[in-house]
Amino acid sequence: xxxxxxxxxxxxxxxxxxxxxxxxxxxxxxxxxxxxxxxxxxxxxxxxxxxxxxxxxxxxxxxxxxxxxxxxxxxxxxxxxxxxxxxxxxxxxxxxxxxxxxx
Length: 103
Known about the structure:
The chain has helices at 5-8, 21-30, 43-65, 86-102; strands spanning 15-18, 77-80. The radius of gyration is 15 Å and the shape is flat. It is mostly helical. The chain has a two-stranded parallel ribbon with strand order 1-2. The protein starts with a helix and ends with a helix. α2 crosses α3. It has a single domain, classed as Rossmann fold (3-Layer(aba) Sandwich), CATH 3.40.50.300. Helices cover 52% and strands 8% of the residues.
């Protein structure tokens, strides 16, 4: 799920995190904290649900605000997290944020 802050606070440092859908589904499926609220039997079921929710959310944002949140030109920094650990993601965002502040 994506945040709407990039649109609501235009002067902010806007970050778009993307990930391969197969990796996202595997991460979500294996996340023990999600097990109590999401009951999927396979990674494929998890993936299908994620794709469905992503599509519905994109349609909703466009219908309400006329924007495409997946349009990467809306962001100051776009990062593919597919092969990164959470720590690496945080480090890269911090590094880019510092560069952004210097501009």
